[in-house]
Amino acid sequence: QVQLVESGGGLVQPGGSLRLSCAASGYISEISTLGWYRRRPGKQRDLVATMTNDNINYSDAVKGRFTISTDDAKSTVSLEMDRLKSEDTAVYYCYAVVTAASLRQYAYWGQGTQVTVSS
Predict the structure, then answer these.
(1) Cα angle at 21 between 61 and 75, to 5 degrees?
(2) Alpha-carbon distance 80 to 69, whole Å?
(3) What pLDDT digit, counting tens, does each position of 19-68 carry?
(4) Distance between CA atoms of 11 and 15, rounded to whole angstroms?
(5) Is 115 exposed, middle or buried (0-12, 13-18, 19+ CB in 10 A)?
(6) Is 63:46 a contact under the CB 8 Å cutoff?
(7) Nearest one of 103, 99, 80 to 2, comparing CA atoms
(8) Residue 28 in 3-state DSSP?
């Protein structure tokens, strides 16, 4: 299994920046995808950004403002958030997809970290 632990959330003013980190442990060698999702108040959880074999996908809402990155071992996935807006307020979840030797895929989620953008 894979364990994901987020950190870095907090309160930030509009226009500010925040960096989220997710530490992955366990069978990280089997991770095929890492990324971030978020759940905004009153809304469903949706995509922020994902990385699969160095292919990066951003939601339109964050493209140009957020940057996802990982280390070579896939032990850490980070989300650099710049020019934050109040609409970015959400619980942010680290996400990983593990591809087993059987090629069956499993999704793992972190506990989430709260990001609040407010003046």
Answers:
(1) 120
(2) 8
(3) 999 999 998 888 999 999 999 999 999 999 999 988 999 999 999 999 99
(4) 12
(5) buried
(6) no
(7) 99
(8) helix
> Which of 115, 119, 110, 116 lies closest to 22 in space, CA to CA?
110
Give the bridge partners for 93, in sequence order: 37
Tokens 């997710």 appear where? Answer: 22
**CA dist list (Å): 97 to 36, 76, 106:** 11, 14, 6
Task: Write the pLDDT tens digit of every residue in 72-84.
Answer: 888 899 999 999 9
Write out the two tokens for 106.
Answer: 């499993």
Q: Give the three-class secondary structure for 96.
A: strand
Q: Enter the DSSP assignment of 51.
A: E
Separation CA 1–CA 11 (nearest Å): 32
**Torsion angle, alpha carbons of 70, 30, 25, 58, to 10:** 30
pLDDT for residue 1: 87
